[in-house]
Amino acid sequence: MASKTLNSTGLRLCTASMTRMALSLALLFTSVLWAAGPVSAETDCLSCHPAKGGTSSGAAQGPEFDQRALEASIHSGVSCIGCHRGADKPGHSTRTARASCIGCHEASAKVVAAGVHGAGVPPSSAKACVPCHGSHGILPARDPQSLVAKARVSRTCSNCHEKVGVQYSASIHGRSLARGIQASPSCVDCHGEHGIFSPRHPNSPVHRSNVSLMTCSRCHEDVRLKTRFRLPSGRLASYQDSFHGLAARSGSKTVANCASCHGVHDILPSSHPRSMINKANLARTCGRCHPNAGSSLTVSSIHEVPASAAESRWIRYVRLFYLILIPMTIGGMFLHNALDWFKKLLRHIRSNHPDLGPLRLTVHERIQHVLLLTSFVALVVTGFALKFPESFWARPILSWEGEFPVRGVAHRMAAALMIFVAVYHALYVVLSRDGRRWLRDIWPRLRDFRDAAGMGGYLVGIKKSPPLFARFSYTEKIEYWAMVWGTSVMVVTGAVLWEHDFVLSIASTLVIDVATLIHYYEAILASLAILVWHFYAVIFDPDVYPVKWTFVNGRASEREVRDES
Q: What is the Cα–Cα distance from 28 to 47, expressed in whole angstroms?
């Protein structure tokens, strides 16, 4: 009995000694490893994670990885701890060694995290990246073997969206892509790449308010694609002008869009018997929104492009009727009112102005005024249309332009007319007696300063009556000489811009830049001066409203004559 007790005690002592020795050796081994520093991807990781098909040289056996795939991937130069950042110390756990893509792809990771694929997944985790891109064998998208290559991405998506993948593969888009037509859309072309949102999300390209304008039209309104694949033209325009399109443009969230009629992933050409827009299926397709419409919706074309060869003859007859009726009706109304206005204008000028005075503007002066008015208005409209082509009032002019520069040509023609008027006027004031009298009467004098001071006193109430003016008041002289100055500046700077190639051959671009700036600001100054100064004098002044007729008949009223001393 004593012998058995002794043997049992010895066994326990021996076991305890062996345990302490094992713990000491383990502690010593761990200390040596920690003293050695971070692990090396090429040595220590391979001891636990052998290449696929290989064996581990260590006691622990971790998951295998495909070393060949890694070496052929886009990450071939990245070490293990470049992605597995928690694995840089021995004894790491599976949780701390999970791969993270955010270190190099922070922007993409955050976009993914905001979408449906990143829901509930931290941006620092590769969990949302691996299903689409793979793990160790990641290839660039341009590589045909990449999981996200144009021809393979639908198969990658179908790993999770199997039913959708089958529908897409049988669709016109999927079959075209399978035949090697790279222009055919894949999943990412419609849904996006990293920022994929639910179709119910307003920022999703396939949201019902975006699918027509943002997604489908991107290909079906592309001129090169329509030409290359002979796609029908005007589909977006005809949709927007239809009942559905008008409702969508007004903000309706339930009206039909492209996908409502053509399908989502199972889009087929109208000639296919299973197509939703095949004539045999249209009643059912339209009946989902219009259950009582039946087959009546199949009579005419849904995409009714104006003046198309395929339109119904009744549509063509109705259109032709109104295209004739509208010009005839409105044209007749316009002609009637124009004749009536002209007759009343003549009567107003001749009969309603018994106080007409002496001739103030000769025929030559009135012709010069009309030509100046015409050229100035044309210059203002075409000049600012060149400067601000996106303005609403410039769009009608731009609609006339194709390959012919309407604005530029019209602007130069108006400039040539203004130069002609300037030369005409210069010759007139030099060579004719009336012209020399004009120049003598319009010349500034000291009296003009006294008149301006006297008028200022009258306007603020210091003086009881305004001064008596000569043939031309100080306001008219200011306007005339401002016009002379402005015309000279605009002609010189305009000539520099017109002949910019010649100017650049003898001067620097600074000359062009300065001329452009002066031309622009002088145009603003002249336009505002006409609006504020001249239009008040000849239109908005209560004494002459609605218009001062001197530019038509050349006569001054008796009131004007009495005001002249």
A: 19
Q: Which domain holds residue 133?
A: 38-138
Of the candidates 191, 72, 79, 63, the one whose C-alpha atom is nearest the C-alpha of residue 132 is: 191
In a domain, residue 12? The reply is no
Least confident segment among 52-61, 175-184, 540-549: 52-61
Q: Are both 329 and 432 inside the same structural domain? A: no
199-237 burial code (b ≥16 CB/10 A, e <16): eebeebbbbbebbbbebbbebbbeeeebeeeeeeebbbe
With tokens 């931290």, the residue in question is 122
276 with 333, same domain: the answer is no
DSSP H or E run through 357: strand 356-359
List the single range of 218-227, 351-360, 432-441, 497-506 with lowest mean pLDDT.
351-360
Higher pLDDT, 79 or 387: 387
DSSP 231: P
271 plus 237 within the same structural domain: yes
Dihedral (Cα; 546, 547, 552, 553), 10-degree rounding: 80
pLDDT of residue 423: 96
Contacts of range 194-198, beta carbons closer than 8 Å, 24 or more positions apart: 194/108, 194/111, 194/112, 194/115, 195/111, 195/112, 195/114, 195/115, 196/115, 196/116, 196/117, 197/115, 197/116, 198/116
Which is nearest to 133 in space by CA: 166, 109, 167? 109
Q: Report the candidate in 172, 173, 168 with the shortest Cα–Cα distance to residue 185.
A: 173
Strands 356-359 and 555-557, bridge-based pairing: antiparallel
* Domain presence at residue 387: yes
Q: Does 188 lie in the same domain as 50?
A: no
Q: Which one-letter amino acid corresponds to residue 17?
A: S
Residue 497: Cβ within 10 Å count: 13
State how far the Cα of 107 lies from the Cα of 113, in Å rounded to an integer: 10
Q: Cβ(541)–Cβ(560) under 8 Å?
A: no
Residue 31 has pLDDT above 60, yes or no: no
Q: Is 91 left (phi over 0), alpha (psi -120 to 50) or beta?
A: left
Helix residue spans in 243-362 (DSSP H): 243-249, 258-262, 282-287, 313-351
Which of 58-72, 79-93, 174-188 has the least mean pLDDT? 58-72
- Overall number of domains in the chain: 4
Cα-Cα-Cα-Cα dihedral of 75, 76, 78, 79, to 10°? 130
Q: Which helix (H) or strand (E) holds 167?
A: helix 162-170
Those residues with Cβ within 8 angstroms of residue 398's Cβ, 6 or more apart along the chain or in another chain: 385, 389, 407
**How high is the pLDDT of residue 300?**
58
Question: Which two structure tokens, joined as six digits, stand for 20?
Answer: 């302490």
Taking alpha carbons only, the member of 475, 470, 467, 471 closest to residue 450 is 467
> At 24, is the pLDDT very low, low, confident or very high (cuts 50, 70, 90)?
low
